[in-house]
Amino acid sequence: MPGFYLTTAIDYSNGDPHLGHAIEKIGADVIARYRRACGDDVHFLIGMDEHGQKVQQEAEKHGSSPQAWVDRIAESFLEVWDRLGLSNDDFIRTSEPRHRRGLTTLMERIAANEDFRRSKYEGHYCSGCEAFKKEDELADGRCPLHPGRDVEWTEEENWFFRLSDYRDAVLARLRDDPGWVRPRTRRNEITRLLEAGLEDISASRSRIRWGVPFPGDEGHTVYVWFDALSNYITAIGYPDGEGFDKFWPADLHIIGKDITRFHCVYWPAMLMAAGVEPARSVWGHGFIKIGGAKLSKSAGTELGLIELIERHGPDALRYFLMREVPWDGDRDYPSSEAFIEQFDRRYTTDLANDLGNLLNRVVSMVSKYRGGDIPPPRGGELAGKASVALSEYRSSMDDYLLHRGLAAAFDVVRAANGFVDESKPWALARAERAGAGLDDLDSVLSQLIGSLGTVAAMLAPFVPAKAAEIWRASGGDGPPPGFADLEPALGRLARVRPGAVLFPRP
Ligand SMILES: [Zn+2]
User: Fold this and answer.
1) Active-site residue, 285 included
2) Residue 24 lies in a domain
3) How many Cα atoms are found within 13 Å in the side-chain-facing hemisphere of 155?
């Protein structure tokens, strides 16, 4: 079984999870579940980024020790991820001993390669980015990403990483492998950045206590980005763990588009310096925006994640986010109210009406006209459309265009509803009673059940609980099958199971 190692950005422990965190994890979970359905041995990692100045400050503000603070935050993230049905295989926290061990080895190997040098640093530090900013990166003396925070003039003696030495190697990798950084807009951005040249970056901080000691210089802690990025290897047992041998290089790092520089420049350079192969690909997804602004800790309170999950259930939220927000771009709503209105609209039209009604209609007709027995599989117009949509779905999903994959699944739903209206099974049943053969209605019902089963398999990565209900109602046992088993499993569907309403009206 081929391995597929998938990671997301680890979340910064300075506040509770919000919608902006959720969309990335849901998208990654969709990919993890899809790869499993394709037969891959998936290892799906998420986690928490728990060190650094901002965490230390936030803990102090709340009268807490940093460790107690990050313990509480990790709990609140885990609770939400559980409610959203994430299927992650591991959850790494950078305050864990396994992380500290791996990070220390990584730093020692980079040091052994003579890629650290001591130097005095003077510059503006944005604690929002946990990064130094050059004069020309500031707008009116402030970080454009964090206009609400002051940048701090900082002078320290730091360890520097010789990033500039790796510019050519990273650029070559980017040019040789068009799929390395995706989507293309992100790749172009990184190419321009590298072409403009790189400066060495700070690898340690001397005034931050809440972090991992810099090897060989205990007065310093490892700079939080070095600390955070290395979670992708420490979680699987770098340097000598079995998981590291099996799963590294990672197949896919999923990150927000605002941190591509760290993942597509710093991280591969760090790994090259330590003699480790970089990840196979990085995907920088876009954001939900409200009135043009990215969701943040403060905007997140207006669209509370728990309230959104409770509004129509976790699968409905997963569906809505994956349908609305293109996985390769942004989606902007004029206001929080407009977001909620659109959520309600999609719930009613797509889920309750189109999908829920389809299931209900088909299962009722098989019960009424065939006593619940499903006629053997047939080809035909609808079966043909479902198979075209399935191959569109597969190619979109293979390219991580999740919104297109989901739209292809709903093409089948729409086609099936249209097929019911056109083929008029009730008229065929009347004709049977008047003496016509069973063939026509058998063909219609079997194609409808086949399309429902196909939809269940296509939707399983997106709405796992609801897809399992569809599969079960259509006569399937267990969860919807993977793609290699789909056709034989459809052939085994024998009796429908009328059940509860899939998406109750609010
Ligand atoms: Zn900033």
Assistant:
1) no
2) yes
3) 0
| Catalytic annotation, pick one of 61, 297, 368, 424 | 297
For residues 65 and 207, membership in a common domain is answered with yes
Query: Are residue 276 and residue 365 in the same domain, yes or no?
Result: no
Examine the residue annotation and report whether 38 is marked as an active-site residue of this protein: no
The model's pLDDT over 110-159, given as tens digits with 9 standing for 90+, comes to 999 999 999 988 889 888 888 888 888 898 889 988 888 889 998 888 89
Question: Around ion ligand 1, which residues have CB less than 5 A away?
Answer: 126, 128-129, 143, 145-146
Q: pLDDT digit string (tens) for 471-501?
A: 999 999 999 999 999 999 999 999 999 988 9
177 contact partners, CB below 8 Å, separation of at least 6:
none
Q: Hey, is 256 helix, strand or coil? A: strand
- How many angstroms is it from 346 CA to the middle of ligand 1? 35
| 62-106 per-position pLDDT tens digit | 999 999 999 999 999 999 999 999 999 999 999 999 999 999 999
Q: Give catalytic status of residue 143 as yes or no.
A: yes
Q: Token pair for residue 110?
A: 């980079």
297 is catalytic: yes
Number of residues written out for the chain: 506
The mean pLDDT value for 465-471 works out to 98
- In whole angstroms, how far apart are CA 384 and each of 24, 361, 379, 381, 485? 34, 21, 7, 5, 18
Give me the torsion for CA of 284, 287, 293, 298, rounded to 10°. -110
Domain boundary among 285, 300, 329: 285
State the DSSP code for 126: E
- Which is catalytic among the residues 25, 43, 51, 129? 129
CATH number at residue 242: 3.40.50.620
Residues 55 and 162 in one domain: yes
Q: How many domains does the chain have?
A: 2
Same domain, 362 and 266: no
CA of 56 to the centre of ligand 1 (A): 17
Residue ranges making up the domain that contains 37:
3-285
Residue 344 placed within a domain: no
Catalytic, 264? Answer no
Binned at pLDDT 50, 70 and 90, residue 324 comes out as very high
Q: Do 401 and 270 reside in the same domain of the chain? A: no
Residue 323 has a CB neighbour count (10 Å cut-off) of 18
Residue 376: DSSP 8-state: P
CA of 254 to the centre of ligand 1 (A): 21
How many Å lie between the centroid of ligand 1 and the Cα of residue 127?
A: 6
- Going 18 to 23 to 28 to 32, the CA torsion angle's sign is positive
Q: What is the CATH number of the domain that holds 419?
A: 1.10.730.10
Q: Which of 25, 54, 143, 253 is catalytic?
A: 143
Domain boundary among 251, 285, 319: 285
- The catalytic position among 25, 54, 124, 126 is 126
Residues 257, 360, single domain; the answer is no
296 inside domain: no
Distance 54 CA to ligand 1 centre (A): 12
The answer to whether residue 292 sits within a structural domain is no
